[in-house]
């Protein structure tokens, strides 16, 4: 997942951006069900999640995988929120 270059979906995306977007898309409860790690299930916060994920490569890989897998849905939701009604 760490390949460089503009075609890599993780190019230019920080871990903080990934966690924030995933949390906004799924919420902590569903995110904790998808990736069963305590930082998403026990008093979750962006800060505590980032601390854990930076120290735990296997967990970070799961977050990166989920982000890439969910990226199209996240982008579609963002576009739908931008479209004014009427």
Which class of secondary structure composition applies to the elements? mainly alpha
Give helix % range: 55-70%
Poorly predicted segments:
none
Instruction: Kindly estimate the percentage of residues that lie in beta strands according to DSSP.
Output: under 5%
Number of extended strands: 0
Write a concise keyword list for the protein shown above.
86 residues, mainly alpha, Transcription Termination Factor Rho, Rna-binding Domain, Chain A, Domain 1
Would you kindly provide a written description of the structure presented here, covering whatever features stand out?
The protein has 86 residues and is mostly helical. The mean pLDDT is 89. The chain is built from 4 helices and no strands. α1 (15-34) packs across α3 (46-55), α1 (15-34) packs across α4 and α3 (46-55) packs across α4 (57-82). Helices cover 70% and strands 0% of the residues. It has a domain at 24-78: Orthogonal Bundle (Transcription Termination Factor Rho, Rna-binding Domain, Chain A, Domain 1), CATH 1.10.720. It is globular and about 40 Å long.
């Amino acid at each position: 997942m760490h390949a460089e270059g503009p075609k890599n979906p993780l190019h230019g995306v920080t871990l903080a951006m990934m966690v924030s977007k995933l949390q906004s898309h799924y919420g902590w409860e569903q995110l904790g069900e998808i990736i069963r790690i305590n930082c998403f299930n026990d008093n979750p916060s962006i800060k505590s999640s980032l601390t854990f994920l930076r120290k735990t490569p296997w967990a970070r890989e799961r977050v990166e995988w989920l982000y890439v897998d969910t990226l199209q849905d996240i982008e579609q939701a963002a576009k739908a929120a931008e479209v004014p009604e009427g």
